[in-house]
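Holo model, flavin mononucleotide. Inputs:
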Amino acid sequence: MSGSASGTRSIPTLIDREHRSAIRTRLSDRLRVLLGSPKHSCFAFILSGTHKLGLWLGIFTNDGDSDTRIASGRHPANGSVPEELATPPLAWYCSADMILDLNQLDPKAIYALMIQSIVPRPIAWVLSDNGDHSYNLAPFSYFNGVSSKPPILSLSIGKKRDGSKKDTWVNIEKRKHFVVHIAQCQQAQSVSASAASLPFGSSEITANELETAGVTGWNLPRLAEAKIAMWCQLHQIVEVGDTPQALVLGRIEQLYLNDDFAQDGLGPIPKIDLDRLDPLARLGGDDYSALGDSFTVSRPA
Ligand SMILES: Cc1cc2nc3c(=O)[nH]c(=O)nc-3n(C[C@H](O)[C@H](O)[C@H](O)COP(=O)(O)O)c2cc1C
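Output:
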């Protein structure tokens, strides 16, 4: 930590694991020397995100049953700590754990936290109908199964930067049908490319030189290279939050499974060869992952 002219001490604004551990070691050592007594305990916890660090600092004396706070303060959340809180005789301890209050964070920080915490997420690679015999394609990782009877899946679709609904939302709302493909690791580049914001009506399928194939009985094509595709009818759109975000519930009418990926399973239901399928998962930011090793854990009776 270095001093500054304003009487504050700089602390790293980005408290990564290494910094937190260094701060903790340094402060615990200082604390032991300064307080040297089990009668005192100290705490500090981080209130806001990594870029705007907010700390509550406190020193307690433990007298009998009661704790008496002898010092505390909230630093101004700009990466600096008032001099008097950072120098002896006051010492502080920085916990390695973080409690992040989502009510105090802005939506961008919340989004960053959620997409790094709710991992790995499957990716719905969604083909929707532009209404002029062209098709829109975009990936969505706020995606999951909801129920089996009826077979419902969910997508959560936000708005564009200009505040208008994303094209997939518009298409599903208007035409009530869409196709969800399960993206594979080898398709990661195309998946990412299909997230480009093209003008409404321009097809990410054409732009990315992807092919479509017809499926008997479907009124929409599937991506030709997809090994799993689900033809869905709109069940419901629930608008969530202030933005709002569209929680799209789709009823899966038919599931296409490429024969090469279907192994013998139980009765007529095939076992899907997940090793070969190699499904793509999304993590935070621009990071993706593959399945890794799978293992079996039997459930209690
Ligand atoms: C892997 C990946 C996952 C994404 N997941 C979502 C999501 O769950 N919800 C969302 O609104 N946007 C998500 N996006 C961003 C959309 O794909 C992007 O806004 C796209 O341009 C929307 O296309 P559209 O306007 O043609 O519907 C994701 C992007 C990527 C690359």
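Helices lie at 17-35, 83-86, 107-117, 167-175, 188-193, 204-207, 274-277. The first helix runs from residue 17 to 35.
Archived with the compound record.
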